[in-house]
Amino acid sequence: MIIKVPASTANLGPGFDSIGMAVSLYLEVEVLSVSDRFQVDHVITKIPHDETNLIVKTALTVYPGLQPLHLRIKSDIPLAHGLGSSSSAIVAGIELADHFGKLGLSDEEKVQIGARIEGHPDNIAPTILGGLVVGTEVDQHFDAIKAPLPPYTLVAYVPDYNLATKDARKVLPKELDFKTATHGSAIANTLVASLFTQNYKMAGELMESDVFHEPYREKLVPELNQIREVAHQKHAVATYLSGAGSTVMTWIEDEHVRGFLSGLNKHGLKANTFILHPDKNGVQIIE
Question: How many whole angstroms separate alpha carbon 275 and alpha carbon 249?
Answer without folding.
Answer: 10
